[in-house]
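User: Can you predict the 3D structure for this chain?
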Amino acid sequence: SAVVAPPPPPALRPTPSAGARPAPDPEATVAPARPAPPLAAAPQIPDIGPAARAAGVPWVAQAAFLVLAVLAVLTCANVLHVQGRAADVEAVSLLRGVAIADSLANRNAQPLADQRGIALDTAFALEREGVTSASVIDPRGTVLAPAERLRTSVSASPAYQAVSTSGEPAVIEVDGGKYEISVPIRGQVGGTGPRQIVGYALLTYDPAAVAGGSLLMGLASSLFVTAVVAALLVAGAWLLLLRPLAALREETELALLGDNYDVTSPIRLAQMEQLAHSINRVVARARAAGGHRPR
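Assistant: Here is the predicted structure, written as structure tokens:
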């Protein structure tokens, strides 16, 4: 009989030592590596526009800012208006100074023509606002009144030189914004005959002293009007907005607590009535949906 040879022993695989990694099996199926998940995009912060920023400000602050802005605009407009009138007011004040000089000349015309120096009067002119000095002088430029300046010469005065040359009223600006005003004094020498120049009235006048008071009065009046307008705005906002909204809020709370309570507009204003109507519709829908639970 045939002798069958025994099968060869299986190949021995080396046993890995402790701590050593096993050799990879070439016949094993290697799973493909999974791709890493994409990184989550950073959350985008929504851009808050001016309207959204304004919505975060309390409405009381917004109303106060609006009132202050209106007051600032009105005040600036009043100040600019008063400044624009400053030149006109000063011109009118200067005409007032010329009128005072004319009065001084008329008061002293006949006493000067009669050579009654004791009857010359300059005190009334000095009592007028804006007049800093007043004099009656003869044709040669010598002061005849007031007594404390008697016989002093004003021949170097620009206004005297101008009026003595032209025979017409002269207004000359001097330093500090003041003016010298001189007008001829005409009278009848001996009480008969034509009127002729017998002297001159000379004033030093500050139109800003009068114009400044007028401008301050105008500014004060403008500010008073601005304050009245602001008070009317606040009162109107309270009567037409704040109080009706508070009443509407109370009406809404009562409508939410009651079954047959409707919100009514506290004032007869179309927008307020539309708002009350919208609130009633919202409350009715809530009742119909079963979301209303009366206490």
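DSSP finds six helices and five strands in the chain. The mean pLDDT is 75.
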